[in-house]
């Protein structure tokens, strides 16, 4: 019997061996990370699937084995970026002492995300432009989805007597558009700029909605 055939051998016991599901998840994660890096610098449509697969260290066949088409993949990358940003925003809001402070925390953390994750912010902008060009919904849809947390914060603030009587959906939309305009303006080039812009916007909207 070979020394590699004993009962403690990882190849026999499965210890240290990745499952098919783990390999599939790793491939998908690699493709998403490659797309973020490439789309931060190039339009989505200009990055071929062959180039994307090569950057991820896999084959085009592996891409098609994980995603039905480019549209599904774009949606997957978008969801990954939005989910990561959402986790950061949720943590910042949860740490705030009240909904009005939570609104400021939401604004500040949104801007900080761009400074901390420039590639993800760039890829997100590229995805929005790509979806608009393809007629699959663009900024308006993303802004509406991104306003859900703001609407909830403003309503909580009204119930707590901290936010004045206003149309929360209109206010949330205004905050989201203002945030995105500043983010896309290039002013948020580093952490210092993010803190400055975040503080300015936080103070402005605190004064605008406070009872």
Structure description:
The protein is mainly alpha-helical. The protein has a single domain (12-209), classed as Tetracycline Repressor, domain 2 (Orthogonal Bundle), CATH 1.10.357. It contains eleven helices and no strands. The protein is elongated.
Measured between the Cα atoms of the first and last residue, the distance is 80 Å
Count of strand segments: 0
Task: State the share of residues found in helices, binned by percent.
Answer: over 70%
So what's the overall shape? elongated
What are its keywords?
mainly alpha; disordered N terminus; Tetracycline Repressor, domain 2; 211 residues
Compact summary:
With 211 residues, this protein is mostly helical. The chain has helices at 10-13, 20-39, 49-56, 60-66, 70-94, 99-116, 118-134, 139-146, 148-159, 168-184, 191-209. Helix 6 runs antiparallel to helix 11.
Topology:
Blueprint: H1 10-13, H2 20-39, H3 49-56, H4 60-66, H5 70-94, H6 99-116, H7 118-134, H8 139-146, H9 148-159, H10 168-184, H11 191-209
Helix pairs in contact: 2-3, 2-5, 2-7, 5-6, 6-7, 6-9, 6-10, 6-11, 9-10, 10-11
